[in-house]
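User: Predict the structure for this protein chain, please.
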Amino acid sequence: MSLSVGIVGLPNVGKSTLFNALTRSKQADAQNYPFCTINPNVGVVEVPDARLQKLAEVSKSQKIIPTVIEFVDIAGLVKGASEGEGLGNKFLSHIREVDAIAQVVRSFSDSNVAHVNNKVNPQEDADVINLELVLADLQTAKKKLDTVKRNAKGAAAKDFEKQLGLFVRVEAQLQAGKPARDLEYNEDETLWMKELYLLTMKPMLYVVNTDEQQTSDFGLQTSGGNENIITICAKVEAELADLTSEEAKQYLQELGMMETGLDKLITASYKLLDLITFLTSGEPETRAWTVKKGAKAPEAAGVIHTDFIKGFVKADVVNWQDFVQYGGWSKIKETGKMRLEGKDYTVQDGDVCYFHISS
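Assistant: Here is the predicted structure, written as C-alpha coordinates:
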Protein backbone atom coordinates (compact mmCIF):
# COMPACT_ATOMS: atom_id res chain seq x y z
CA MET A 1 0.00 0.00 0.00
CA SER A 2 1.63 3.25 -1.14
CA LEU A 3 -0.27 6.47 -0.51
CA SER A 4 0.72 9.87 -1.85
CA VAL A 5 1.33 13.28 -0.30
CA GLY A 6 1.17 16.36 -2.51
CA ILE A 7 3.67 19.13 -1.73
CA VAL A 8 1.87 22.43 -2.39
CA GLY A 9 2.38 26.13 -1.71
CA LEU A 10 2.97 29.49 -3.33
CA PRO A 11 5.78 29.80 -5.89
CA ASN A 12 9.33 30.16 -4.49
CA VAL A 13 8.63 28.85 -0.99
CA GLY A 14 11.02 25.90 -1.36
CA LYS A 15 8.72 23.07 -2.51
CA SER A 16 11.02 21.72 -5.21
CA THR A 17 14.14 22.13 -3.06
CA LEU A 18 12.37 20.10 -0.39
CA PHE A 19 11.23 17.48 -2.91
CA ASN A 20 14.76 17.12 -4.33
CA ALA A 21 16.15 16.63 -0.83
CA LEU A 22 13.42 14.10 0.00
CA THR A 23 14.15 12.03 -3.07
CA ARG A 24 17.92 12.73 -3.10
CA SER A 25 17.55 13.83 -6.70
CA LYS A 26 17.54 16.90 -8.94
CA GLN A 27 14.41 15.89 -10.82
CA ALA A 28 12.36 18.90 -9.68
CA ASP A 29 13.34 22.24 -11.19
CA ALA A 30 14.10 24.59 -8.28
CA GLN A 31 14.76 27.81 -10.15
CA ASN A 32 13.99 31.26 -8.75
CA TYR A 33 10.83 32.09 -10.67
CA PRO A 34 7.12 31.19 -10.44
CA PHE A 35 5.81 28.07 -12.21
CA CYS A 36 9.23 26.49 -12.83
CA THR A 37 7.42 23.24 -11.94
CA ILE A 38 4.63 22.67 -14.46
CA ASN A 39 4.04 18.93 -14.47
CA PRO A 40 4.18 17.26 -11.06
CA ASN A 41 7.32 15.36 -10.08
CA VAL A 42 6.78 12.07 -8.27
CA GLY A 43 9.21 10.42 -5.85
CA VAL A 44 8.93 7.28 -3.74
CA VAL A 45 10.65 7.68 -0.36
CA GLU A 46 11.53 5.07 2.27
CA VAL A 47 9.88 5.53 5.67
CA PRO A 48 12.64 5.58 8.32
CA ASP A 49 12.21 2.72 10.81
CA ALA A 50 14.96 1.81 13.28
CA ARG A 51 13.08 -1.38 14.23
CA LEU A 52 13.95 -3.11 10.96
CA GLN A 53 17.69 -3.34 11.61
CA LYS A 54 17.14 -4.78 15.10
CA LEU A 55 14.71 -7.41 13.81
CA ALA A 56 17.03 -8.32 10.94
CA GLU A 57 19.93 -8.89 13.33
CA VAL A 58 17.86 -11.33 15.39
CA SER A 59 16.51 -13.17 12.35
CA LYS A 60 19.85 -13.02 10.48
CA SER A 61 17.89 -11.64 7.52
CA GLN A 62 19.59 -11.46 4.14
CA LYS A 63 17.85 -8.19 3.28
CA ILE A 64 15.79 -5.38 4.76
CA ILE A 65 12.83 -3.84 2.91
CA PRO A 66 11.33 -0.67 4.42
CA THR A 67 7.86 0.59 3.61
CA VAL A 68 7.52 3.65 1.36
CA ILE A 69 5.47 6.78 0.85
CA GLU A 70 4.99 8.73 -2.38
CA PHE A 71 5.58 12.48 -2.58
CA VAL A 72 4.30 14.61 -5.46
CA ASP A 73 5.84 18.03 -6.12
CA ILE A 74 2.97 20.18 -7.43
CA ALA A 75 3.55 23.55 -9.09
CA GLY A 76 3.03 26.75 -7.11
CA LEU A 77 -0.52 28.02 -6.62
CA VAL A 78 -1.27 31.73 -6.66
CA LYS A 79 -4.18 33.94 -5.64
CA GLY A 80 -6.99 33.36 -8.15
CA ALA A 81 -5.98 29.75 -8.89
CA SER A 82 -9.57 28.59 -8.34
CA GLU A 83 -10.55 30.90 -11.23
CA GLY A 84 -7.75 29.58 -13.43
CA GLU A 85 -5.10 32.17 -12.56
CA GLY A 86 -1.52 30.97 -13.11
CA LEU A 87 -2.59 27.65 -14.67
CA GLY A 88 -4.54 27.13 -11.45
CA ASN A 89 -7.13 24.66 -12.71
CA LYS A 90 -4.43 22.30 -13.93
CA PHE A 91 -2.55 22.49 -10.64
CA LEU A 92 -5.72 21.98 -8.59
CA SER A 93 -6.48 18.83 -10.58
CA HIS A 94 -3.07 17.46 -9.58
CA ILE A 95 -3.94 18.05 -5.91
CA ARG A 96 -7.18 16.08 -6.34
CA GLU A 97 -5.15 12.99 -7.18
CA VAL A 98 -3.12 12.83 -3.94
CA ASP A 99 -4.24 11.37 -0.61
CA ALA A 100 -2.96 14.16 1.66
CA ILE A 101 -1.40 17.63 1.39
CA ALA A 102 1.87 18.96 2.79
CA GLN A 103 1.58 22.72 2.45
CA VAL A 104 4.95 24.51 2.43
CA VAL A 105 4.96 28.08 3.75
CA ARG A 106 7.98 30.34 3.65
CA SER A 107 9.61 31.70 6.79
CA PHE A 108 13.17 32.10 5.49
CA SER A 109 14.62 35.43 4.36
CA ASP A 110 16.68 35.53 1.19
CA SER A 111 16.89 38.64 -0.98
CA ASN A 112 18.00 36.45 -3.90
CA VAL A 113 14.76 34.45 -3.87
CA ALA A 114 11.77 36.56 -4.83
CA HIS A 115 8.55 36.13 -2.86
CA VAL A 116 5.44 36.21 -5.05
CA ASN A 117 3.83 38.73 -2.64
CA ASN A 118 7.10 40.65 -2.04
CA LYS A 119 7.08 39.90 1.70
CA VAL A 120 7.67 36.89 3.95
CA ASN A 121 4.57 36.06 6.01
CA PRO A 122 3.80 32.34 6.63
CA GLN A 123 0.24 33.04 7.79
CA GLU A 124 -0.60 35.02 4.66
CA ASP A 125 0.96 32.29 2.49
CA ALA A 126 -1.22 29.66 4.16
CA ASP A 127 -4.35 31.85 3.99
CA VAL A 128 -3.94 32.36 0.22
CA ILE A 129 -3.54 28.63 -0.48
CA ASN A 130 -6.34 27.59 1.86
CA LEU A 131 -8.76 30.12 0.39
CA GLU A 132 -8.06 28.92 -3.15
CA LEU A 133 -8.73 25.32 -2.12
CA VAL A 134 -11.96 26.40 -0.38
CA LEU A 135 -13.11 28.42 -3.42
CA ALA A 136 -12.42 25.51 -5.77
CA ASP A 137 -14.42 23.21 -3.47
CA LEU A 138 -17.23 25.76 -3.23
CA GLN A 139 -17.74 25.54 -7.00
CA THR A 140 -17.92 21.73 -6.76
CA ALA A 141 -20.28 21.82 -3.76
CA LYS A 142 -22.65 24.31 -5.43
CA LYS A 143 -22.97 22.09 -8.50
CA LYS A 144 -23.66 19.06 -6.33
CA LEU A 145 -26.20 20.97 -4.23
CA ASP A 146 -28.07 22.09 -7.37
CA THR A 147 -28.20 18.48 -8.59
CA VAL A 148 -29.49 17.18 -5.24
CA LYS A 149 -32.13 19.94 -5.09
CA ARG A 150 -33.45 18.91 -8.50
CA ASN A 151 -33.57 15.28 -7.43
CA ALA A 152 -35.13 16.00 -4.04
CA LYS A 153 -38.58 16.40 -5.53
CA GLY A 154 -41.42 14.02 -6.21
CA ALA A 155 -41.07 10.27 -5.65
CA ALA A 156 -37.32 10.37 -4.99
CA ALA A 157 -37.53 13.15 -2.38
CA LYS A 158 -36.96 10.93 0.66
CA ASP A 159 -33.80 9.44 -0.82
CA PHE A 160 -32.25 12.87 -1.25
CA GLU A 161 -33.40 14.69 1.89
CA LYS A 162 -30.39 13.54 3.93
CA GLN A 163 -27.99 14.43 1.13
CA LEU A 164 -29.62 17.83 0.81
CA GLY A 165 -29.05 18.55 4.50
CA LEU A 166 -25.42 17.45 4.21
CA PHE A 167 -24.54 19.54 1.18
CA VAL A 168 -26.31 22.65 2.52
CA ARG A 169 -24.09 22.29 5.60
CA VAL A 170 -20.96 21.77 3.50
CA GLU A 171 -21.72 24.78 1.29
CA ALA A 172 -22.22 26.98 4.37
CA GLN A 173 -18.88 25.79 5.78
CA LEU A 174 -17.06 26.63 2.54
CA GLN A 175 -18.88 29.97 2.20
CA ALA A 176 -17.43 30.84 5.61
CA GLY A 177 -13.95 30.15 4.21
CA LYS A 178 -13.49 27.00 6.30
CA PRO A 179 -12.31 23.57 5.08
CA ALA A 180 -14.81 20.75 4.70
CA ARG A 181 -12.56 18.42 6.76
CA ASP A 182 -13.41 20.38 9.94
CA LEU A 183 -17.06 19.21 9.89
CA GLU A 184 -18.16 15.92 11.42
CA TYR A 185 -19.79 13.26 9.24
CA ASN A 186 -21.69 10.05 9.91
CA GLU A 187 -21.01 6.86 7.92
CA ASP A 188 -23.41 7.62 5.06
CA GLU A 189 -22.25 11.23 4.81
CA THR A 190 -18.61 10.12 4.64
CA LEU A 191 -19.42 7.97 1.60
CA TRP A 192 -21.28 10.83 -0.13
CA MET A 193 -18.41 13.20 0.57
CA LYS A 194 -15.89 10.81 -0.98
CA GLU A 195 -17.79 11.05 -4.26
CA LEU A 196 -17.11 14.82 -4.37
CA TYR A 197 -13.29 14.55 -4.18
CA LEU A 198 -13.09 17.85 -2.30
CA LEU A 199 -9.61 19.32 -1.87
CA THR A 200 -10.33 20.53 1.67
CA MET A 201 -11.38 17.03 2.77
CA LYS A 202 -7.80 15.87 2.38
CA PRO A 203 -5.74 15.82 5.59
CA MET A 204 -3.19 18.66 5.64
CA LEU A 205 0.22 19.13 7.20
CA TYR A 206 1.98 22.52 7.28
CA VAL A 207 5.72 22.58 6.59
CA VAL A 208 7.34 25.84 7.66
CA ASN A 209 10.49 26.36 5.59
CA THR A 210 12.74 28.28 7.99
CA ASP A 211 16.12 29.97 8.08
CA GLU A 212 19.00 27.80 9.29
CA GLN A 213 18.79 28.93 12.93
CA GLN A 214 15.04 29.61 13.19
CA THR A 215 12.95 27.10 15.15
CA SER A 216 9.87 29.09 16.23
CA ASP A 217 8.20 32.51 16.10
CA PHE A 218 6.99 32.00 12.53
CA GLY A 219 3.48 33.19 13.42
CA LEU A 220 1.38 30.45 11.86
CA GLN A 221 -1.98 29.41 13.30
CA THR A 222 -4.09 26.57 11.90
CA SER A 223 -7.38 24.89 12.78
CA GLY A 224 -5.43 21.76 13.75
CA GLY A 225 -3.15 23.60 16.18
CA ASN A 226 0.58 22.93 16.40
CA GLU A 227 0.15 19.18 15.93
CA ASN A 228 -0.09 19.57 12.17
CA ILE A 229 2.87 21.98 11.85
CA ILE A 230 6.50 20.96 11.41
CA THR A 231 9.57 23.12 10.75
CA ILE A 232 12.22 22.31 8.17
CA CYS A 233 15.11 24.23 6.66
CA ALA A 234 14.99 23.02 3.05
CA LYS A 235 18.41 24.56 2.40
CA VAL A 236 20.02 22.44 5.15
CA GLU A 237 18.10 19.36 4.00
CA ALA A 238 19.40 19.85 0.45
CA GLU A 239 22.95 20.02 1.82
CA LEU A 240 22.41 16.86 3.89
CA ALA A 241 21.06 15.01 0.85
CA ASP A 242 24.40 15.53 -0.96
CA LEU A 243 26.39 13.91 1.88
CA THR A 244 27.12 10.28 2.66
CA SER A 245 25.17 8.82 5.60
CA GLU A 246 28.23 9.11 7.86
CA GLU A 247 28.89 12.72 6.81
CA ALA A 248 25.20 13.58 7.27
CA LYS A 249 25.23 12.07 10.76
CA GLN A 250 28.24 14.20 11.70
CA TYR A 251 26.67 17.34 10.21
CA LEU A 252 23.47 16.72 12.19
CA GLN A 253 25.50 16.47 15.39
CA GLU A 254 27.20 19.77 14.59
CA LEU A 255 23.77 21.36 14.08
CA GLY A 256 22.48 19.81 17.33
CA MET A 257 19.72 17.91 15.49
CA MET A 258 18.51 14.42 16.48
CA GLU A 259 16.95 13.64 13.11
CA THR A 260 16.74 15.22 9.69
CA GLY A 261 13.79 17.44 8.90
CA LEU A 262 12.97 15.04 6.08
CA ASP A 263 12.68 12.09 8.45
CA LYS A 264 10.36 14.29 10.52
CA LEU A 265 8.30 15.11 7.41
CA ILE A 266 8.10 11.49 6.24
CA THR A 267 7.02 10.27 9.69
CA ALA A 268 4.49 13.11 10.08
CA SER A 269 3.05 12.40 6.60
CA TYR A 270 2.70 8.71 7.48
CA LYS A 271 0.79 9.69 10.63
CA LEU A 272 -1.29 12.22 8.67
CA LEU A 273 -2.48 9.44 6.35
CA ASP A 274 -3.49 7.40 9.44
CA LEU A 275 -1.11 4.58 8.54
CA ILE A 276 0.61 2.04 10.76
CA THR A 277 3.40 -0.44 10.09
CA PHE A 278 3.39 -4.14 10.82
CA LEU A 279 6.48 -6.24 10.27
CA THR A 280 7.52 -9.65 9.03
CA SER A 281 10.91 -11.09 9.86
CA GLY A 282 12.79 -14.22 8.89
CA GLU A 283 16.06 -15.32 7.32
CA PRO A 284 15.15 -14.33 3.74
CA GLU A 285 14.08 -10.80 4.70
CA THR A 286 12.82 -8.40 7.36
CA ARG A 287 10.14 -6.18 5.90
CA ALA A 288 7.81 -3.32 6.85
CA TRP A 289 4.24 -3.30 5.53
CA THR A 290 1.71 -0.48 5.51
CA VAL A 291 -1.96 -0.68 6.50
CA LYS A 292 -4.56 1.84 7.56
CA LYS A 293 -4.97 2.17 11.32
CA GLY A 294 -7.76 -0.16 12.42
CA ALA A 295 -7.07 -2.84 9.78
CA LYS A 296 -8.01 -6.40 10.72
CA ALA A 297 -5.55 -9.31 10.40
CA PRO A 298 -6.90 -10.68 7.06
CA GLU A 299 -6.62 -7.19 5.51
CA ALA A 300 -3.00 -6.98 6.68
CA ALA A 301 -2.29 -10.42 5.22
CA GLY A 302 -3.83 -9.21 1.97
CA VAL A 303 -1.19 -6.47 1.70
CA ILE A 304 1.40 -9.24 1.33
CA HIS A 305 -0.70 -11.09 -1.26
CA THR A 306 -4.35 -10.53 -2.16
CA ASP A 307 -5.05 -14.30 -2.06
CA PHE A 308 -4.14 -14.28 1.64
CA ILE A 309 -7.38 -12.47 2.53
CA LYS A 310 -9.52 -15.39 1.40
CA GLY A 311 -7.15 -18.06 2.73
CA PHE A 312 -6.49 -16.42 6.12
CA VAL A 313 -6.66 -18.91 9.00
CA LYS A 314 -4.81 -17.29 11.90
CA ALA A 315 -1.75 -15.17 12.70
CA ASP A 316 1.17 -15.56 15.07
CA VAL A 317 1.64 -12.06 16.54
CA VAL A 318 4.32 -10.64 18.84
CA ASN A 319 5.38 -7.10 19.70
CA TRP A 320 8.62 -6.21 17.93
CA GLN A 321 10.45 -5.41 21.18
CA ASP A 322 9.62 -8.84 22.61
CA PHE A 323 10.69 -10.41 19.31
CA VAL A 324 14.11 -8.76 19.65
CA GLN A 325 14.47 -9.33 23.38
CA TYR A 326 13.64 -13.04 23.30
CA GLY A 327 15.53 -13.95 20.13
CA GLY A 328 13.01 -14.27 17.31
CA TRP A 329 10.47 -16.90 16.26
CA SER A 330 12.53 -19.91 17.36
CA LYS A 331 12.56 -18.82 21.02
CA ILE A 332 9.51 -16.58 21.40
CA LYS A 333 7.02 -19.49 21.62
CA GLU A 334 8.49 -20.61 24.93
CA THR A 335 7.97 -17.21 26.59
CA GLY A 336 4.20 -16.86 26.30
CA LYS A 337 4.70 -13.53 24.52
CA MET A 338 3.42 -14.83 21.18
CA ARG A 339 -0.33 -14.76 20.57
CA LEU A 340 -2.52 -16.64 18.12
CA GLU A 341 -4.96 -14.13 16.62
CA GLY A 342 -7.99 -14.68 14.39
CA LYS A 343 -9.91 -12.72 11.75
CA ASP A 344 -11.23 -10.11 14.18
CA TYR A 345 -7.81 -9.05 15.47
CA THR A 346 -6.95 -5.37 14.88
CA VAL A 347 -3.32 -5.07 13.82
CA GLN A 348 -1.18 -2.74 15.95
CA ASP A 349 1.80 -0.64 14.90
CA GLY A 350 4.97 -2.66 15.62
CA ASP A 351 3.33 -6.09 15.46
CA VAL A 352 5.57 -8.81 14.01
CA CYS A 353 3.24 -11.20 12.20
CA TYR A 354 3.38 -14.65 10.68
CA PHE A 355 0.20 -15.48 8.77
CA HIS A 356 -1.17 -19.01 8.43
CA ILE A 357 -2.93 -19.34 5.07
CA SER A 358 -4.97 -22.26 3.73
CA SER A 359 -4.20 -23.33 0.18
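The longest helix spans residues 122-151.
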